[in-house]
From TrEMBL:
Gene3D superfamilies: 3.30.420.40. Belongs to the ROK (NagC/XylR) family. This is ROK family protein. It comes from Streptomyces seoulensis. Pfam families: ROK. Signal peptide: none annotated. It comes from the Bacteria.
Length: 317
């Protein structure tokens, strides 16, 4: 029997996706369940087991020899546990052990969702071929991960690169994480929308107050909407420049819903980056949109699992 596939789980606050992925990052089978996020931990685990059951029913299942999990965080990969902010029933939940048991003992690799997306972009997306990269997800929150020296750098607990919670405004607003002036508080979608509304932006007749609606308004030249995106871009640029200065990344990849805003975000971002990334060794830094779509979490989890296999050739992940 060939064992040329890897199983992957992408666990978030709204859905639990599962897939069988080949050595080129292509999804050969997939399934998905809603996350019963407000229910107790065992009920959430049952949904995971249903996803695993769907995968195990595939005729391809026997070709999978390892399983990767990308989970909403925080995660603790050293302990094999997860405590997703949006899944209160799971606090220090022993996900690795439970998934291993549910699959009859497959080797399991756990990474956080920001690290998973980084693995996917490095393997098959915008960071391909870059040995030193920061990949970010800018949506409801702001997460990220690092590739250093050609390898994924999850850190001891799997949370390295969590750029959303570095402070870029020393006396800024308190952040739910306990710090102040975090990148997330200035650059996440809800915060872009919140700031625009507070500064007098009026939504259209449809009443849409999402960051995407602010982006539409900015595209039409609404000065308040433009200013809110410029402020978000400034925060992202400061975080990216700090990262580049610390570890010499040469590319920053931005995905997530806000990352889809296009020039409304990227034009002021590149301008602000020139203001903050000033030393000679960071001036070559480029910032680009993510290339991986909604499957990035699954593909990244697969990349992490592939790295477990002794015969792996997955792009140095
Ligand atoms: Zn924070």
């Amino acid at each position: 029997m060939h064992t040329d596939l890897v199983a992957a789980l992408d666990i978030g606050g709204t859905k639990i996706a599962g897939a069988l992925v080949d050595g080129h990052g292509r999804i050969q089978a997939r399934t998905q369940r809603a996350t019963p996020a407000r229910q107790d931990g065992e009920t959430v685990m049952q949904a995971v087991e249903q996803v695993l059951g769907d995968l195990a029913a595939s005729p391809l299942w026997g070709r999978a020899s390892v399983l990767g999990i990308g989970s909403a965080g925080p995660v603790d990969t050293s302990a094999g546990t997860v405590s997703p902010v949006n899944v209160p029933g799971w606090r220090g939940f022993p996900l690795v052990e439970r998934v291993r048991a549910a699959t009859g003992g497959l080797p399991v690799e756990l990474i956080g969702d920001g690290v998973a997306i980084t693995a996917a972009e490095h393997w098959q997306g915008a960071a391909r071929g870059h040995d030193n990269a920061l990949c970010m997800v800018v949506s409801t929150g702001v997460g990220g991960g690092l590739v250093l020296g050609g390898r994924l750098h999850p850190g001891p607990t799997g949370n390295a690169g969590h750029i959303g919670h570095i402070s870029v405004d020393l006396d800024g607003e308190p952040c739910p994480c306990g710090a102040r002036g975090c990148v997330e508080g200035l650059a996440s979608g809800p915060n872009i929308a919140r700031r625009a509304l507070a500064d007098g932006w009026l939504p259209g007749p449809d009443g849409d107050t999402s960051a995407a609606a602010v982006a539409d308004a900015a595209r039409r030249g609404d000065p308040v909407a433009v200013a809110s995106f410029e402020r978000a871009a400034q925060a992202l640029a400061a975080g990216i420049a700090a990262t580049a200065t610390l570890v010499e990344i040469d590319i920053a990849v931005i995905g997530g819903g806000v990352g889809k805003a296009g020039d409304v975000l990227f034009a002021p971002l590149r301008k602000a980056l020139a203001d903050y990334a000033t030393l000679s060794f960071v001036q070559r830094l480029t910032v680009v949109p993510a290339q991986m779509g909604t499957d990035a979490g699954l593909v990244g989890a697969a990349a992490a699992a592939l790295a477990l296999r002794p015969d792996t050739t997955a792009a140095g992940v």
